[in-house]
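=== RUN LOG ===
request id: a7f3
mode: sequence -> structure
chains: 1
length: 801
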Amino acid sequence: MEVPQQFVSRPRLLQRLSAPTRLICIGAPAGYGKSALVREYARVARERCASVSGRGRGRAELWFDIAARLDLVPPGDQGAGSQPDDWIDAVAQVDEPATVIVDDVPDEPAFAHDVLRLLESTSLLRFILTSRHPERFTALAAASPSAVELIDATDLAFTSAEAGRLLSRLRPASPSPVPDSISPLRWRIVLLAGENFDDSRSAERYLEFVLATQDDPDGLLSAFARLAFSPVLSDAFVQSTLGAEHPARLSLAEELALGRWTGPDEFEFFPEIRAALRNRRAERGTDETRAWVRRDALWALENGHPWPALQAALEIDDLYLASRVIRTSWEGLVDSPAAAALQRVPVGDRSRFPAMNLMVGLHYLAAGNKDAALPMFDLAAESIRKNVGSVEPGEQLWLLGMLTAALRLQGRLTGAVRAAARAEGIVQTYPERALIAEPGTSRLIVHFALTFVNAGQIDRAEAMLTLGLRCNGPGTAGWFHCVSVMAGVVALAGRLREATELLRVRSDTPHPARWDHSYLGFFGVLAESILLLERGDAARARTTLSVLQPHLATVEHRPAAIAVECMIDLAEGDHPRVRAVIDSALLDGSAPYWRGVLAAESRLAWLLAGVPSPAGSRSQPPVGQVLSALESVLRDDAGSALVTLADTTAGGVAGVSPRVRAMAAVVGVAAADAAGADLLERLAADAGALLSHHGLSTPLALAPDGVQAVIARHIAGGAPSWPYRFPALEELPTLSRRELEILFALTHCRTREELADQLQVSINTIKTQLRSVYRKLGVSSREAALARASELRLIAGPRQG
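=== RESULT ===
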């Protein structure tokens, strides 16, 4: 077998690869030369070879690539929307002997079954597979032990003769005597120190591995430095270095004369380097250019640069890769020019890759253009539904994650919950190690959890978030967003110790600053604002919450931000504003969870204003029963209040959040004080212990100043004093919701025509409803109606400060 001179000949291994064995599996750790060996074989093999990389690729994309390299794909077909079986069947039609080489096979049992199926269906194919994880070949070896040859790390180790032959070709001269064996690590270092060896891709791959693992043995960088900037360094390697941020890689770039440090944290690359790269790339052929651009895209994606990765994928029309970039890093693309680039993709292609339409919709939504966003989500949801049932479980989780997000952002929560529940069933049977090995899939767990939160199914949400924290490594986007959502959920429930610890861990873990206020990171902002409020710093709580303003176009963010802002208003005693804001928020189709939170706050605002809550504003138990007890206290019926609390949350019912239990405890103390009961001091001690344990203070706003002081004596470190504004409870004129809407509209509409236009009814209808409002308020004019409504605190007065 003739071997080109620029490669180190390893005839014993090449001979094994050229044997008629139909399935050869090469399993060894990184650095043992697996990739270099199969590339060398592909160059010298007598039969046709289709060599592909399986790293990070789905089955459909991988088999399409194999079919394309065997010229079995119709001209112009890019494989969009096809299934793996389509291309497996195409590969089975090969009409000449061929070897399929898959470097770094995917960790999917289905792939092993695909290989066995092809070996049975045609005698013209043979396979050479490599992996860093030899256990991936167990199923193949067990299924056909006589037809499989296994090559392991021991087989790949250099013999003395091979090492000597290699070293003799390098300059400077090899050390003497030649060792009996040479480790893969030292062999790579010697390889990089040479000036004539041309296996640059293998050298660069090992350099990537060393830098990624922070392994820096003695003399490694000095050996790298000897390479200088020469043709030995490929365009792809230099380009990846140009986009680097890690100090070790930048220091290496300086030694390679690619640029220089201009400050402690500033590195400048030489312009001529970029120009040279552009010129050299322009001289390459189409196939080679695609290979380099694809490698650049993968490097950018793996190193946290999604927009350059997407640009590169679209440059070579690799829509599979573009979809993968979006699916892996959509949060990082929302504020980039990605939407404009994707809209240049033909509509038909976008419909086959639902992640693209979803990305465009998210961009519109972040920009506040809800009308343009919703059709994009609808297109994404429609294309996902067509495919979700016909793919493997891992891919189903991908599609269900995108479907859940698309439906949820359209306000179609029932469908989103169904999709999330279906995903929950898959997750319960899907191996957790498989989720850990697929970071893109595990990142979607937070979207299922957020759907359960919006549906008010908090236990299911927390279980999903706990799984997400286990499956996403600390510092990854999936882990960060699971921490953020969990912090917001437990803070809203009043579990402030847990929220504080989650926010501390989140803050201490290095992450891009944009994640803090991202589409999913907003729950962390809610938690921070709540913690500040409970510590008595309402001003900072409001300032912290204001960073969510750019996100308030979505059906999720707006009610969540309003709910927390109204918590601040309630604690500060601004009850009219709470009622006005919440009444409008409840009309926008909020999710059940937020609708329940807002309804409870609305009812509380009426009570704290000294009026019974109007019909239709009753909140759900258990918080509704606590507020009913508060209403009884205000009606001087403390006995009924104590009975209501005893039947609901006074003893601590399972499933009731600490916040609701604290509210019940404070109302119980207020009721005991009003009734003159002997239990006052004991109930105050219990309430103080509960507030102290969870770090809560805002429930104190439900009690008069005197009762607040009694409870505060039992709170470690004291507690803030919140405004108490309970006038005598008076009966409110019974206005319907429509009449309340007219009353609010009167504050800025001066004529009947303006009212009719805003409320989209006829002039005659407005006349009838105005007469009803005036009669119930006992007035006869707009000015008198507004004055009386302000006295009754039915409408908000001017905001103070």
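=== NOTES ===
The beta strands are 23-27, 48-53, 98-103, 125-131, 148-151, 259-263, 266-269.
Residues 1-8, 169-234, 797-801 have pLDDT under 50 and may be disordered.
=== END ===
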